[in-house]
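dumping this here so i dont lose it
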């Protein structure tokens, strides 16, 4: 067991090169889980579209890092909640790389408030990016996959969609009703798309992260006191690292997962195992 989990870091684990020749688009790829996933997919051999919003600096940094490691990437700005921007992004992606094989629906945000204080704007903003954004991007990716069909030299599937969900697709979360609702929605969005698209050989799955060390939850891990409290929720006794999510996404996108569709892979150190019952409840 890690004795000082607050400062512990995992040694770098090599990503297998299982996505050679494939093109991936990762939304919200300029920071956090999206950044790690974009870098991970590139390490696996995919060419990567790095979607971002706002100043390009951080996305450029991801593109540069991928390039320095011998990969290929392109930054494209789009607000995933805006239909025309999403459509333009997918057109530009295919124009640049010639195809699309993997969508990682990652862009997500929190705007926390108690139910009684939550504004409609806080509700709509989170549902718009986290849920509507995933719908719009999945729709555009699917249109491309259907047009392309299957190229067995590249993949047994016509395309893959990986939704980044959360443990909060099943764990209710007081003070975060907009966020938890968006993630609960992603669960049924993912499963329904998987059911609808399986006969086209389009695989749709989710990765549901627990607490991962990213800017979205900084206050939950950036002080020893907060980290101590967080550990009580995690049987595995360490916070997740963005790389933990990248590894899961790469596997779900790979041929090794070809018979996997409609599944949520929880990558949460056991957060969904009801840790309150560890000690007999
Ligand atoms: C949230 C984090 C939170 C984690 C576990 C994630 O989906 O974005 O803020 O720490 O769930 O509660």
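and the seq i came up w/
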């Amino acid at each position: 067991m890690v004795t000082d989990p607050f400062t512990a870091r995992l040694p770098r684990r090599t990503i297998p090169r299982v996505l050679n020749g494939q093109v991936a688009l990762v939304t919200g790829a300029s920071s956090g889980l999206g950044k790690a996933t974009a870098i991970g997919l590139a390490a696996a051999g995919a060419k990567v579209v790095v979607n971002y919003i706002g100043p390009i600096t951080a996305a450029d940094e991801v593109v540069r890092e991928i390039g320095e490691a011998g990969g290929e990437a392109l930054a494209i700005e789009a607000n995933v909640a805006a239909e025309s921007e999403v459509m333009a992004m997918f057109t530009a992606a295919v124009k640049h790389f010639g195809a699309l094989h993997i969508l990682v629906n990652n862009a997500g945000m929190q705007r926390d408030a108690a139910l009684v204080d939550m504004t409609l704007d806080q509700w709509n903003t989170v549902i718009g990016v986290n849920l509507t954004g995933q719908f719009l991007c999945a729709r555009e990716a699917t249109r491309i996959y259907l047009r392309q069909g299957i190229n067995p030299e590249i993949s047994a599937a016509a395309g893959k969609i990986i939704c980044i969900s959360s443990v909060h697709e099943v764990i209710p979360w007081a003070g975060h009703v907009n966020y938890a609702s968006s993630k609960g929605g992603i669960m049924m969005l993912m499963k329904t798309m998987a059911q609808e698209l399986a006969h086209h050989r389009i695989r749709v799955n989710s990765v549901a992260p627990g607490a991962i060390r990213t800017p979205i939850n900084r206050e939950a891990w950036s002080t020893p006191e907060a980290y101590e409290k967080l550990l009580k929720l995690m049987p595995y006794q360490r916070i997740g690292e963005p790389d933990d999510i990248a590894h899961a996404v790469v596997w779900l996108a790979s041929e090794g997962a070809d018979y996997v569709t409609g599944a949520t892979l929880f990558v949460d150190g056991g957060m969904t195992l009801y840790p309150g019952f560890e000690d007999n409840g």
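Residues 120-148 form the longest helix (29 residues).
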